[in-house]
Amino acid sequence: MTSDAYTFPVAISRLTEGETSREPQIERAIRWLLERSGRSVIVVTPQKRFDSESLKQLAARPGVTHLSWRGLSLGSLSGHRVLYAWPDREHLNKLWDIDADALVVVEWDQRETAEWIEDANPVQLFQGYAVDPQPVAEPADRQEPLPNGVGGILEYVTTMSAGYSSGLKWNEIDKLKADMMNRPDRWVSITVDQVRAKCRELGMRPDDIDTVTELLQRRKEGRRFNVQGSYRKFQFN
Fold first, then answer.
1. pLDDT tens across 146-195, in order?
2. From the CB of residue 212, how many other CB atoms can be counted at a distance below 10 Å?
3. pLDDT at residue number 138
4. What is the reported pLDDT for 200?
5. Which of 4, 32, 83, 129 is deepest in the core (most CB within 10 A)?
6. 42 has which bridge partners?
7. Across all residues in the chain, what is the average pLDDT?
8. Rounded to an integer, what distance in angstroms lies between the CA atom of residue 101 and that of residue 33?
9. How far apart are the C-alpha atoms of 176 and 196, rounded to whole Å?
10. 3-class SS letters over 89-157
Protein backbone atom coordinates (compact mmCIF):
# COMPACT_ATOMS: atom_id res chain seq x y z
CA MET A 1 0.00 0.00 0.00
CA THR A 2 1.39 3.40 -0.94
CA SER A 3 1.01 6.61 1.02
CA ASP A 4 -0.41 9.76 -0.50
CA ALA A 5 3.03 11.41 -0.44
CA TYR A 6 5.06 8.53 -1.93
CA THR A 7 4.38 6.42 -5.01
CA PHE A 8 5.82 3.28 -3.41
CA PRO A 9 5.07 1.36 -0.18
CA VAL A 10 6.14 3.26 2.95
CA ALA A 11 6.00 2.23 6.61
CA ILE A 12 7.37 3.23 9.98
CA SER A 13 8.06 0.77 12.79
CA ARG A 14 7.27 2.29 16.19
CA LEU A 15 7.72 1.20 19.78
CA THR A 16 4.56 -0.30 21.25
CA GLU A 17 3.52 0.64 24.77
CA GLY A 18 5.16 -1.77 27.19
CA GLU A 19 8.05 -2.76 24.90
CA THR A 20 11.34 -2.54 26.74
CA SER A 21 13.60 -3.59 23.87
CA ARG A 22 13.95 -2.13 20.39
CA GLU A 23 14.69 -5.52 18.80
CA PRO A 24 11.00 -6.41 18.18
CA GLN A 25 10.53 -2.97 16.62
CA ILE A 26 13.45 -3.59 14.26
CA GLU A 27 12.27 -7.12 13.48
CA ARG A 28 8.85 -5.74 12.46
CA ALA A 29 10.53 -3.34 10.07
CA ILE A 30 12.64 -6.11 8.54
CA ARG A 31 9.67 -8.45 8.07
CA TRP A 32 7.60 -5.72 6.44
CA LEU A 33 10.39 -4.74 4.05
CA LEU A 34 11.22 -8.31 2.99
CA GLU A 35 7.54 -8.94 2.26
CA ARG A 36 7.53 -6.10 -0.28
CA SER A 37 8.49 -6.84 -3.85
CA GLY A 38 11.48 -5.06 -5.29
CA ARG A 39 15.15 -5.13 -5.92
CA SER A 40 18.01 -5.48 -3.44
CA VAL A 41 17.88 -4.19 0.14
CA ILE A 42 19.80 -1.20 1.49
CA VAL A 43 20.16 -0.64 5.24
CA VAL A 44 20.92 2.91 6.38
CA THR A 45 22.09 3.63 9.95
CA PRO A 46 23.51 6.79 11.55
CA GLN A 47 26.92 5.14 11.95
CA LYS A 48 28.53 1.99 10.60
CA ARG A 49 28.55 0.47 14.09
CA PHE A 50 25.29 -0.30 15.88
CA ASP A 51 23.99 -2.75 18.50
CA SER A 52 20.96 -4.46 16.96
CA GLU A 53 21.60 -8.16 16.31
CA SER A 54 18.67 -8.57 13.92
CA LEU A 55 19.80 -5.56 11.90
CA LYS A 56 23.37 -6.90 11.81
CA GLN A 57 22.05 -10.21 10.45
CA LEU A 58 20.12 -8.41 7.74
CA ALA A 59 23.10 -6.23 6.78
CA ALA A 60 25.29 -9.35 6.53
CA ARG A 61 22.99 -11.11 4.04
CA PRO A 62 24.32 -11.59 0.50
CA GLY A 63 23.21 -8.76 -1.74
CA VAL A 64 22.32 -6.39 1.12
CA THR A 65 24.18 -3.06 1.21
CA HIS A 66 24.84 -1.24 4.47
CA LEU A 67 25.29 2.56 4.33
CA SER A 68 25.69 5.20 7.03
CA TRP A 69 24.73 8.87 7.06
CA ARG A 70 28.29 9.99 6.41
CA GLY A 71 28.74 10.54 2.70
CA LEU A 72 25.30 9.12 1.91
CA SER A 73 24.05 9.87 -1.59
CA LEU A 74 20.26 9.71 -1.58
CA GLY A 75 20.30 8.82 -5.26
CA SER A 76 21.85 5.49 -4.28
CA LEU A 77 18.60 4.54 -2.52
CA SER A 78 16.46 4.81 -5.64
CA GLY A 79 15.37 1.50 -7.13
CA HIS A 80 15.94 -0.45 -3.90
CA ARG A 81 14.06 -1.59 -0.83
CA VAL A 82 15.32 0.64 1.98
CA LEU A 83 15.39 0.23 5.75
CA TYR A 84 16.26 3.62 7.23
CA ALA A 85 17.08 3.28 10.93
CA TRP A 86 16.64 5.99 13.57
CA PRO A 87 16.58 9.14 11.41
CA ASP A 88 16.09 12.58 12.89
CA ARG A 89 13.81 15.17 11.32
CA GLU A 90 16.58 16.58 9.12
CA HIS A 91 17.31 13.21 7.54
CA LEU A 92 13.63 12.36 7.13
CA ASN A 93 13.13 15.63 5.25
CA LYS A 94 15.66 14.51 2.66
CA LEU A 95 13.73 11.34 1.78
CA TRP A 96 10.98 13.07 -0.20
CA ASP A 97 12.69 12.84 -3.57
CA ILE A 98 13.95 9.25 -3.48
CA ASP A 99 12.37 6.76 -5.88
CA ALA A 100 12.67 3.54 -3.90
CA ASP A 101 10.86 0.23 -4.39
CA ALA A 102 9.83 0.35 -0.71
CA LEU A 103 10.86 2.31 2.39
CA VAL A 104 10.55 1.44 6.07
CA VAL A 105 11.72 3.82 8.78
CA VAL A 106 12.68 2.63 12.26
CA GLU A 107 11.60 5.36 14.66
CA TRP A 108 13.83 6.47 17.52
CA ASP A 109 12.11 9.62 18.80
CA GLN A 110 8.49 10.38 17.96
CA ARG A 111 9.18 14.11 18.27
CA GLU A 112 11.47 13.78 15.24
CA THR A 113 8.98 11.77 13.17
CA ALA A 114 5.61 13.35 14.05
CA GLU A 115 5.45 15.82 11.17
CA TRP A 116 6.83 13.30 8.66
CA ILE A 117 4.16 10.77 9.69
CA GLU A 118 1.44 13.36 9.22
CA ASP A 119 2.72 14.31 5.76
CA ALA A 120 3.89 10.90 4.48
CA ASN A 121 0.91 8.96 5.88
CA PRO A 122 2.83 5.64 6.13
CA VAL A 123 1.73 2.27 7.45
CA GLN A 124 2.52 2.31 11.18
CA LEU A 125 3.85 -0.97 12.53
CA PHE A 126 3.23 -1.91 16.17
CA GLN A 127 3.48 -5.17 18.12
CA GLY A 128 0.72 -7.43 16.82
CA TYR A 129 -1.01 -4.88 14.61
CA ALA A 130 -0.54 -2.19 11.98
CA VAL A 131 -2.25 1.14 11.39
CA ASP A 132 -2.96 1.64 7.69
CA PRO A 133 -2.55 5.03 6.00
CA GLN A 134 -5.43 7.33 6.75
CA PRO A 135 -7.88 8.02 3.92
CA VAL A 136 -7.08 11.23 2.11
CA ALA A 137 -9.84 13.71 2.82
CA GLU A 138 -10.37 17.30 1.84
CA PRO A 139 -9.57 19.34 4.97
CA ALA A 140 -12.70 20.84 6.47
CA ASP A 141 -10.75 23.66 8.05
CA ARG A 142 -8.56 24.89 5.24
CA GLN A 143 -6.37 27.81 6.13
CA GLU A 144 -7.79 31.25 5.72
CA PRO A 145 -6.08 33.07 2.83
CA LEU A 146 -3.01 34.87 4.11
CA PRO A 147 -3.32 38.66 3.70
CA ASN A 148 -1.13 41.16 1.86
CA GLY A 149 -0.40 38.76 -1.00
CA VAL A 150 1.65 36.40 1.20
CA GLY A 151 -0.45 33.40 0.16
CA GLY A 152 0.30 34.08 -3.49
CA ILE A 153 4.00 34.48 -2.74
CA LEU A 154 4.09 31.11 -1.00
CA GLU A 155 2.26 29.49 -3.92
CA TYR A 156 4.88 30.92 -6.28
CA VAL A 157 7.74 29.72 -4.07
CA THR A 158 6.20 26.24 -3.85
CA THR A 159 5.89 26.06 -7.64
CA MET A 160 9.48 27.17 -8.15
CA SER A 161 10.92 24.78 -5.57
CA ALA A 162 9.03 21.85 -7.13
CA GLY A 163 10.86 22.48 -10.39
CA TYR A 164 14.26 21.68 -8.90
CA SER A 165 15.36 18.34 -7.49
CA SER A 166 17.43 20.12 -4.83
CA GLY A 167 14.69 22.52 -3.75
CA LEU A 168 14.76 26.29 -3.60
CA LYS A 169 17.52 28.03 -5.54
CA TRP A 170 19.51 30.93 -4.15
CA ASN A 171 17.77 33.51 -6.34
CA GLU A 172 14.31 32.54 -5.08
CA ILE A 173 15.61 32.73 -1.52
CA ASP A 174 17.07 36.18 -2.24
CA LYS A 175 13.69 37.33 -3.60
CA LEU A 176 12.07 36.30 -0.32
CA LYS A 177 14.79 38.00 1.73
CA ALA A 178 14.45 41.21 -0.26
CA ASP A 179 10.66 41.29 -0.03
CA MET A 180 10.75 40.71 3.72
CA MET A 181 13.11 43.65 4.13
CA ASN A 182 11.59 45.99 1.52
CA ARG A 183 7.97 45.28 2.46
CA PRO A 184 7.99 44.74 6.25
CA ASP A 185 4.36 45.90 6.32
CA ARG A 186 3.42 42.84 4.25
CA TRP A 187 4.83 40.38 6.78
CA VAL A 188 4.33 42.09 10.13
CA SER A 189 0.94 40.50 10.87
CA ILE A 190 1.90 37.04 9.55
CA THR A 191 3.13 34.49 12.09
CA VAL A 192 5.75 31.85 11.48
CA ASP A 193 3.19 29.16 12.34
CA GLN A 194 0.79 30.52 9.72
CA VAL A 195 3.50 30.38 7.06
CA ARG A 196 4.51 26.84 8.04
CA ALA A 197 0.90 25.65 7.93
CA LYS A 198 0.30 27.25 4.53
CA CYS A 199 3.50 25.80 3.07
CA ARG A 200 2.53 22.32 4.28
CA GLU A 201 -0.96 22.76 2.83
CA LEU A 202 0.63 23.65 -0.52
CA GLY A 203 2.83 20.54 -0.44
CA MET A 204 6.16 22.34 -0.23
CA ARG A 205 9.20 20.17 0.56
CA PRO A 206 9.99 20.04 4.30
CA ASP A 207 13.51 21.41 3.81
CA ASP A 208 12.12 24.36 1.87
CA ILE A 209 9.45 24.96 4.52
CA ASP A 210 12.23 25.21 7.09
CA THR A 211 14.12 27.66 4.86
CA VAL A 212 11.10 29.96 4.42
CA THR A 213 10.00 29.90 8.05
CA GLU A 214 13.55 30.45 9.33
CA LEU A 215 13.83 33.56 7.15
CA LEU A 216 10.61 34.96 8.60
CA GLN A 217 11.68 34.11 12.14
CA ARG A 218 14.97 35.92 11.64
CA ARG A 219 13.21 39.03 10.31
CA LYS A 220 10.86 39.04 13.30
CA GLU A 221 13.95 38.99 15.50
CA GLY A 222 15.11 42.16 13.74
CA ARG A 223 17.89 40.57 11.71
CA ARG A 224 18.81 41.75 8.22
CA PHE A 225 19.86 39.69 5.19
CA ASN A 226 22.65 39.86 2.66
CA VAL A 227 21.04 39.94 -0.78
CA GLN A 228 22.74 39.82 -4.19
CA GLY A 229 22.88 43.23 -5.83
CA SER A 230 20.35 42.49 -8.57
CA TYR A 231 17.69 41.57 -5.99
CA ARG A 232 18.28 44.17 -3.27
CA LYS A 233 15.28 46.29 -4.30
CA PHE A 234 13.08 43.37 -5.31
CA GLN A 235 9.45 43.23 -4.19
CA PHE A 236 6.73 40.77 -5.10
CA ASN A 237 3.75 42.42 -6.80
1. 999 999 999 999 999 888 877 899 999 999 999 999 999 999 999 999 99
2. 24
3. 54
4. 87
5. 83
6. 65, 82
7. 92
8. 10
9. 15
10. HHHHHCCCCCCCCEEEEECCCHHHHHHHHHHHCCEEEECCEEECCCCCCCCCCCCCCCCCCHHHHHHHH
CB neighbour list of residue 95: distance below 8 Å, 6 or more residues apart? 74, 84, 87, 103
Is the CB of residue 29 less than 8 Å from the CB of residue 83?
yes
Q: Which residue stretches of the chain have pLDDT < 50?
A: 1, 140
pLDDT of residue 190: 94
Amino acid identity of 184?
P
Vertex 57 angle, CA 52 and 62, to 5°: 145
Q: Alpha helices of the chain — where are they, by DSSP H?
A: 23-35, 53-59, 89-93, 110-120, 150-162, 170-182, 184-187, 192-202, 206-220
67-96 in b/e form (b: 16+ CB < 10 A) is bebeeeebeebeebbbbbbbbeeebbbebb
- What is the rounded CA–CA span in Å between residue 80 and residue 38? 7
DSSP-derived letter for residue 18 is T
Q: Determine the Cα–Cα distance for residues 2 and 9; give it in Å rounded to an integer.
A: 4
Distance set, CA 199 to CA 10, 41, 236 (Å): 23, 33, 17
